[in-house]
Specification:
globular; 3 strands
Length: 98
């Protein structure tokens, strides 16, 4: 049975680094989810990302040099945390095996 895997990272600087895990997940016939597949939606990007993290069986976080986009309170964030940080904190605080 395929596992749903959410891939989190900053986008522009790690685009190339995101492609390898995505290819591997496809080869393993896993259900990969990442921002590359997000289309227009009625929810905010923060809501979309945290909902995807909630539904994922596994979250992979790739971290490098950039902090990334910081959504304002109007955008669903707190104005201090990057979207990747929000995804990470959501994942580690969910009741599932580490």
């Amino acid at each position: 049975m395929a596992k749903k895997v959410f891939l989190s990272s900053t986008s522009v600087d790690l685009k190339e680094h995101r492609s390898r895990p995505m290819e591997t997940l496809r080869r393993l016939e896993q259900d990969e989810v990442g921002m590359e597949f997000f289309g227009a939606a009625p929810d905010t990007p923060v809501e979309r990302c945290t909902n995807e993290v909630d539904r994922a069986d596994l979250v992979i976080l790739i971290v490098a040099h950039r902090y990334g986009w910081v959504p304002s309170e109007n955008e669903g964030g707190d104005g201090r945390s990057s979207i990747s940080q929000i995804e990470f904190l959501r994942a580690v605080n969910l009741p599932r095996p580490a």
